[in-house]
User: What shape does this take?
Amino acid sequence: MPINQRFLVVKTKDSKTITYMEYDKIHGYKVTPKNNIKFTDAINVKSMVLLNPSLIEKMVDIKARKRFNHLINLLAIVYEDDDDSGEGLMLAKNEAEKFRMEIINKYKKYISEEKLELYESKIGILEDELDLRLSALKDRQDELSMSGKSR
Assistant: This one.
């Protein structure tokens, strides 16, 4: 038996079988396990392909929500920091843009249009707030540089 074979475990009331499936032809959402915990008497899983659309939508929503909460926590840390260079704000802006592209490119085909629009509007609000803070910081730096020069 070749090592590269992949299997689908199907459990029904009548029979418990293991069926060979070609994952390259199946369209679904690929998930890899978080930890590399290996059991001696169990099947070790390197990756799974979810086929149920409602389960896929729930899984993608959970991942997107975790990523969005991470972005919110990053923004809270940046807002509390009184750094005048604006590096934290630029980092947060880049992370928000990266999350927007991830939602559009990676999760668009798995989540509903309403959730996609909701995430895009939330990210838009965060980016607008970051733009305001960056422009205020730039104005403050311009005022300091202009007031420091006297002729």
